[in-house]
Amino acid sequence: MEIFSKIWNLLTTENEFITKLIVSPTVILEAWLSILIITDILKFKITKNKKIIYIVFLSFLSLLTEFVIPEPYNFFINYIALLLFAKYLFNLNIIKTVLCTIIPPVFFALCTILILNPFLKIFKINYQNLETIPIYRLTFLFTLYILVLLTILIIKKKNFKFNILDDLTSNNKKIVLLNLISGFIVLSIQAMVTLYNINIIPIWFSLLNFVGLVLYFFINFYSLNKTMKLQVTTKNLENAESYNTTLSYLYDNVKSFKHDFDNMLFIIGGYITNNDLDGLKTYYKSLESDCEKVNGLALLNPKLINDPGIYNLLISKYKKAKDDNIEIHLEYFFDLTKLKMPIYDFSRMLGIFLDNALEGSKDSREKQINIMFRDSQRNNTQIISIENSYNNKDVDTSSIFEKGNTSKENHTGMGLWEVKQILNRNNNINLTTTKTEKYFKQNLEIYYQ
Length: 449
What we know:
Blueprint: H1 2-12, H2 16-23, H3 26-41, H4 48-67, H5 73-90, H6 94-123, H7 127-132, H8 134-157, H9 170-196, H10 203-259, H11 261-273, H12 277-299, H13 308-323, E1 327-333, H14 343-362, E2 368-376, E3 381-389, H15 415-425, E4 429-435, E5 439-447
Parallel strand pairs: 1-2
Antiparallel strand pairs: 2-3, 3-5, 4-5
């Protein structure tokens, strides 16, 4: 009985250091709840190993800032370190990284503001007692964690969806970041004011404060969601316009083809009548080339190329090729929704490859670009191949990725150097650069993880 008495005395005696020591294991539970918020509410897809790494790091960081780094520096160090680590571990864009850094503490702060004052009044203690007496601190934390978990489960059950686009425009990205950062600052200040004055604040005021903050964040996220939907709508309109242009090109080609159809039949008939098989073969090759142009145009379809950004990129490059009298042959057997690398990195690489192909083929005699998208499920590999005719047969494929290396006038030579940086930060992709007498080729392989 004596040992139980000592434990009880330890739990009920005011001692700030002992309180911190006793409640320190709860940081693991808090880190686990944080990862639940990130995956179940924000819908970020994170592997099991990365979840474990995040929980371990967040637990260690919380203990470090609690015991070693004094206030208020621990607050800033904690969130800056967490932001940088989340960016490195999850490899998300800046908006998603900021969200997964600040949304979990927002959840905990709002729940704290809701229950703190009633908790103090029920147990007839002040905030100082809560911070320095282990039994009260443990009871409060477990109450808080249960409330946070229930909130997560309710939101998950309601199937709350909040889609964060990977390719926000620059202006929208600034607006979103400003909203997120200002909201977090407002909540932090409000939470500090509440904690410092909690002993004199009535319960009704705490409840009003909680409702006001919830409304503030609800309006913020509602506006953010509307911004996302507006950008999606804008992109859809751009896609429709681009697709109309494609249809116009396709119609012109088919109309021209149909106009000459009778003549083609007469020409073919002439070769057959004269038993001129060699002439028929030569004519058929020319005819086949026209058919390939029409088929290539038919592939430029937003339902087939099912990513608005990539679709617009291909359309814009096709228009440029047409203006420069460059032939583009496209083969497309791909589903961009199943792309096994970040779409932002992929679109940058594809844009650089296409720009280089257009530049290389522009001055060549053949003026030809061949593009192929293929998903090789047998080899667990997605393949994107871009080859173009070119004049500079002396190009060194081993040095073109160096910073500033370029043979073009008024070019910085940064494009392929940027490709090299993308290759370095994605461990499941490989690029092979080759050249033949006719074609310069970039072959990108993306391996399933």
